[in-house]
Amino acid sequence: MKVVIIGAGIGGTSAGIALARHGHDVVIYDRMRQNKPVGAALSLWSNGVKVLNWLGLGEEVARLGGRMDHMAYHDGHTGDQLCRFSLEPVTAHTGQRPYPVSRADLQALLMRTLGLDRIHLGRELVGIREEGDKVTAVFADGSTDTADLLIGADGARSLTRDWITRADEGGFRVERQYSGYTNFNGLVAASPAIAPLDQWTTWVAEGKRAAVMPVADDRFYFWFDIPQPAGLPYEREDGVAPLEAAFGHWSPEVRRLISGIRPSESLNRVEIWDIDPLHTWTRGRVAILGDAAHNTAPDIGQGACSALEDSFALAISLTTHTVGVEDSLRRYERMRTDRAGELVLRARKRGEETHGYDPSITAAWYESLRGTDGTAIIRGIIGNIDGSPINLGVGLL
């Protein structure tokens, strides 16, 4: 069966690998003209890593991943440690160590594994036609490609999603919602003068957060959250000026982190949006996955993992069900929409708790961090992993 995938991100390429390894003829189109992933790095929790293991990439992903043995929270103003605990219970309960990884490194690995000859960049989808047992993708340059199945992994502003929901035919258009904060992220050289090299360290105060996580090649993935209105002006030339304004009075470690950032090399600014849980993922021989289906705020680190779960579920459904493509896609939809939607809501709730939208709630969260042994935090992390289709019904030990 020929499969056209729109989008060469984490979800699209992982789905392409899964389907190609089950014997399908896969081709991917993406409007980007070169591989420039959005965001510097991502959290691969155990469920996401397991999907990559299933794809045969376990050793390669382990080499890309940072050694993250502990988690700690610090007071943003003073730098005083609020709590520190081991992440070993996550591995013990789930059967897989989590890894923070460079997004560019992971995406490059997935593209190479699929085969660069299967991926066509600079091709923007502008239309979809379904006729009988075929579906055709129409691109801005006038070219087309016809297949037995089309998968839209085309991101938060998905045209494929609009086609599925009949947004231009009297149906409904999914609208994104602003989460209330802007995220700055990138990669810097790891340094013990900022934080331990084997630890996810987060500083909190004023409804803002700064954090570092270790990734391969002696680097930290860093990120800063600033609650603010959407649409504020920012130019690349502004560099770290917004970070200095928001965090310049914070602890010495945070100031060292900011001083180590090289904006021309690695600094991204992203307004954080999400969408309400969506239960319409398919129409005929067309389906969506990843951000197109469940654009999720990064507050629980499950966005990429959820896209990887989509890829696993889609390949399993198409491989194990034989009634027809439409039937298999509907079963994929049933497998995924409830869980993906629940993760959207959990991330939204977490963001509301941590970003000071209700100061009393955020103050209570800060207080809960003081001296905790991490049991509740670990329970929350594991709770996000439990129920993943990659667990094959076994659950957690």
From TrEMBL:
Cofactors: FAD
Domain FAD-binding: from-to ranges: 2-344
EC number: 1.14.13.113
Keywords noted in UniProt: FAD, Flavoprotein, Monooxygenase, NAD, Oxidoreductase, Purine metabolism
Pathway: Purine metabolism; urate degradation
Keyword flag Protease: no
The reaction(s) this protein catalyses: urate + NADH + O2 + H(+) = 5-hydroxyisourate + NAD(+) + H2O
Keyword Cell membrane listed: no
A matching Pfam family: FAD_binding_3
Family statement drawn from the similarity comment of this UniProt entry: Belongs to the FAD-dependent urate hydroxylase family.
Protein name: FAD-dependent urate hydroxylase
Source organism of this protein record: Microbacterium invictum
Lineage start: Bacteria, Bacillati, Actinomycetota, Actinomycetes, Micrococcales
